[in-house]
Amino acid sequence: MTNDQWIEAYLQYLQAERNASSHTLINYRNDLEQFAAFLKQKQVSRFAEVTYLLVRMYLAKLNEQEYAKRSVSRKLSALRSFFLFLVREGELASSPFQFIRTPKQEKKLPQFLYVAQMEALLNAPDRETPLGLRDLALMELLYASGLRVSELTGMNLSSIDLDNGIALVFGKGAKERYVPVGEPAVRAIRMYLAIARPQLAKSPAEQAMFLNARGTRLTARSVRRVLDKYIDGLAGVEHVTPHTFRHSFATHMMEAGADLRTVQELLGHVNLSTTQVYTHMTKDHLQTIYNQAHPRA
Length: 297
Prior knowledge:
Elements lengths: L2 H15 L4 H20 L10 H13 L4 H20 L26 H8 L7 H16 L3 H5 L6 E2 L4 E5 L5 E5 L2 H18 L19 H12 L10 H14 L4 H8 L4 H4 L1 H17 L4
Antiparallel strand pairs: 1-2, 2-3
Helix pairs in contact: 1-2, 2-4, 6-8, 6-10, 10-13
């Protein structure tokens, strides 16, 4: 099999056996094809010919191109998994990545919005237009439930019970979880479904909850563009992604007294350690407030 054929075989395995999301598959494809292109430059035609030295040379090239440590770690993770797949398939006796160490990550606290900033952002959409009502509904839901953008765009009309304020979403690895939906989000979604969605929908068979102007399912990229549009006029905020809503949800929950286990369940984190970053955030926030407010700070 050629390198391209091995990449396709691995992506099919991820989709069929590991329930990998479309977002994960796109990232893995990009990372594997980038490595394959590097090998071609070095006149290496088969993955079976990759050596430890070649891997080190590739990492050095990524470093020269000033890739962030987080990006390098993701690429390494993709390549590690792929080469283990090649070993299992009998293409390799061992993986050249087995002795490669993942670079240490810089500990960066997730970006979040303060409550007043979030309120300003949620007040930005135009309630008089179909797209404005849609934007308001999706932003309210992102903040109310702490959803990942893939969970939001994957929702269908049947995913949410507005009467009981609860939604069923599919997280990483297609894992189901129920999330609460607050009353402001329920109101915004009801308006969107009653007024805006019928104007956006081109086919009664379309089951996607959130639609674009063409009447098809909204993509993660489109959600990011929606947010960029509203951020331009928001004072004190430079960059907001869909994940900023998720971080804000968790931070505000913790600051209001929610316990760590509850926030973990709501976010759909497998490991508690993933959620614990928000305890550091609230401590830092409290320290800032203390320093500003206490006369003896």
